Amino acid sequence: MAETPDGQQKSEAASGKKLSDARDRGQIAKSTDVTSAAVLLFGGTMVYMLGAPMMKKLTDFLRLLLLNSSSVELTDQNIVFYARELFLSIGMFMLPLLGVIMAIGFTAEVSQVGFKFATKKFTEGLNFGAIFNIGKGLKRIFFSSRSMVELLKSVMKMFVIGVVIYQVIAKHLEALVSLAGLPYQMLGSRIAAIGFELIWKVGLAYAFIAAGDWMFQKYKFREEQKMTKQEVKEEGKQTEGDAQTKSRMRAIGRQRLKKIMLQHVRQADVVITNPTHYAVALQYKTGSMSAPVVVAKGVDFLAAKIREIATEANVPIVENPPLARSLYAAVEVDQEIPENLFKAVAQILAFVYRAKNK
C-alpha cells in the first residue's frame, strides 16, 4: 500500500477531482510500448505490401541506368535528372508509408490518453532550475524504483525480441545463405518474405509485452493516485466550501437582478395582477417597441413588492388573473409578449390610456 512521506497510508481510491487534476498535469496511465507495437505491426504490414512494387520500381530504374551507362554522359544535367528520378521512385512509396505510420502512432496515443492537452505539464517542463539540478536528476535516473522497473522491462524486451529474431533466422538460415545465388528477380521477394515474417513475429511479441505494460501502468497509476483519509476529508471540505461560495455568489447575483428589475416597475405603463399571487409589469413605447415588454414579474412576496412600488409611482394596477398567470409563465423579463396575448394586453393598455386622458 502506498504511503505519504510522513508515513500516512494511502488507502482510499482517488476522487474524480484528483484524477481530473492529475490529467491536467499530464499524469495519465499510458504505455509507450503500445504505440511502438502498433507502429511495428501495421507499419511492417505496409512495408510488406509496398515492398515488392518498390523493389520492382528500383530494379527497373537501376536496369535503365546500367543499360544507358555507356551512352549517357555524366553531366550535371544528367546527374540531376537521374537523382530526381531516384528520389521520386522512392518517395512515391515512402510518403504514404510515413503518413500511415504517423496516423497509427497518433491513433495509439489518443486511444490511451484522449485529446486532452496538458498545459500544466508543459509549463512545469519550463522549470529550468529543475533541469539544471544535476544531482537530483542523476538520483532520479539511477536510484529510483521507477528507473529499476524500466530497466527490468528493457532487459525483458531485449530478451524476448532476441529469442524471436534468433528463431526466425535459424528457421531461414539455409535460405539466407543461398540468397547470393538467386536471380535478382527473386532476390527482392525472398528478402521481403523473410523480413515480413521477422517484423510480424517481433511485432506480436512486442504487442504481448505492451499489453502487460499497459495493465501495469494502469495499476501503478491507480496506486499512485490513492489518497489518505485526511486528504479525502480536506478535499470534501474544500469542495463543500467552493459550492457554498458559488451558492452565495448566485444568491447575490439574483438579489442584484431583483433590485434592478424592481427599479423598472416605476417606468411601467401597467401592472397586471392575480391579484395577490402574481404581478407582471408591462411597458410599451409607441414607435420604439414593436410589442409590450415585461419589465418585471414576481410571485407572492415579490409580487407584493411590485404592487407596492407601482402604488408609490402611480402606475395603474389591473386585476386579471388568467392574463397575469399567462404572462408570468410565457414571458421572461425584458422580453416582448407573444402574439397570442396581444389582444388581451391591448385592451388593458387602451383602458389605462383612456383613464389617464380623463
Quick description:
The protein has 358 residues and is mainly alpha-helical. It has 13 helices and four strands. Helix content is 70%, strand content 6%.
What does this protein look like?
- It is a single chain.
- This protein has helices spanning 16-24, 32-67, 76-113, 119-124, 128-131, 134-143, 145-171, 173-177, 184-225, 229-265, 301-312, 321-330, 342-357; strands at residues 270-273, 278-283, 293-299, 317-319.
- It folds into 2 domains: 16-118 and 139-230, no CATH class; 261-357, name from scop (3-Layer(aba) Sandwich), CATH 3.40.1690.
- Strands 3-2-1-4 form a 4-stranded mixed beta sheet, sandwiched between helices.
- The protein is mainly α.
- It starts with 15 loop residues before the first helix and ends with a helix.
Question: Helices and strands in order, then pairings?
Answer:
Layout: H1 16-24, H2 32-67, H3 76-113, H4 119-124, H5 128-131, H6 134-143, H7 145-171, H8 173-177, H9 184-225, H10 229-265, E1 270-273, E2 278-283, E3 293-299, H11 301-312, E4 317-319, H12 321-330, H13 342-357
Parallel strand pairs: 1-4
Antiparallel strand pairs: 1-2, 2-3
pLDDT < 50 runs, ≥5 residues: 128-132
Task: Note the overall shape.
Answer: elongated
What is the count of β-strands?
4
Q: If helices are DSSP runs of H or I spanning 4 or more residues, what is the number of helices?
A: 13
